[in-house]
Amino acid sequence: MGGIIYQTPTLQRGLRALLTSTLLGVSLAGSACHERPREGSGRIWVVDDAGDTVRLQAPARRVVSLIPATTELLFAIGAGASLVGRTSYCDYPPAAKAVPDLGDGIKPSIEAVLAQRPDLVTLYNSGQNAAVAGRLRELGIPTLRVNTVARILGTVTGRQRGADSVAAAFDTALAAATRPAKGPRPRILLLVWEQPPMTIGRGSFLHELVERAGGENLFADVAASSGVVSIEAVAARDPDLIFTTNEGPSAFATRPEWQVVPAIREHRFLRVSGSEFNRPSPRAPAAIRELTARMEAARR
Question: Is the pTM of this model over 0.85?
Fold first, then answer.
């Protein structure tokens, strides 16, 4: 259960920043002023989330994306045709599955990446990827290490207008999907790992999905994106619903130690499936609507 846990300030700021350039991050080469380069014009330089300056001679046309959220957004802004490599976890949109699968996004095979002749590679900003990024740059391949907040996709692909359009549509859809706070909210345990029990804190975008859907994160006081909790702590807070990303009954629900939690004994589960629940993407408003519907059904 679980998956990648994303941390982002807010869904709006996180997705918009991932799509669009900022005055702090992009400039025209040789220009003293900081401004957004026009699509298809000039050389581009950006500073990635690892603090490295990455230069491109022109917008990227052969991109290896080793981050599922980046892959999804490249298609959303109209740059899907430039994708020449992805991870095994890049499952959306369906067209992504036609792109060569290069395996995991952590410590990927350099040989597999090079075989795709990319002019840009995106990697998780992880210490495990530092050596890979360094080696690719030594070989002359611009490589970005990014968190969920990248600030640069529209710029590096020459798709700034598409990125701006997606961001604007997302803002509207997100506002429409957000449920106003009315009355008591169901308290939800966001259980994303079973042994040891791990929950989501307010630093994760999944926390915001639940809050916008009309629920209350049982461990919203955990500042980090995730954290280990005890069964005793869960029982003391007595959640109304248990959020899991499993389709069927989870093995932990039958264990004796978990029976001290009434929601477990009474099988009050909020089960969801789909990668829209483990990565920030334009599908977030749809995920919020689904959560709202499932919470309302569970309370009937």
Answer: no
The tokens describing 206, both together, are 């999944």
Q: DSSP assignment of the chain, as one string?
A: ---PPPB-S-HHHHHHHHHS--TTTEEETT-SS--PPPTT-S-EEEE-TTS-EEEESS--SSEEE-SHHHHHHHHHTT-GGGEEEB-TT---SGGGGGSPB---SSS--HHHHHTT--SEEEEE--GGGHHHHHHHHHTT--EEEE-S--S-HHHHTT-HHHHHHHHHHHHHHHHHHPPP--SPPPEEEEEEETTTTEEE-TTBHHHHHHHHTT-EETTTT--SSEEE--HHHHHHH--SEEEES-SS--GGGGSGGGGGSHHHHTT-EEE--SGGGSS-STTHHHHHHHHHHHHHHHT-
- 197-201 average pLDDT score: 89
Q: Which residue has 């795709």 as its token pair?
A: 116
Q: Is the pLDDT of residue 34 over 70?
A: no
The two tokens of residue 235 are 């029982």
Tens-place pLDDT, residues 66-96: 999 899 999 999 999 999 999 999 999 999 9
pLDDT band at 10 (very low <50, low <70, confident <90, very high): low
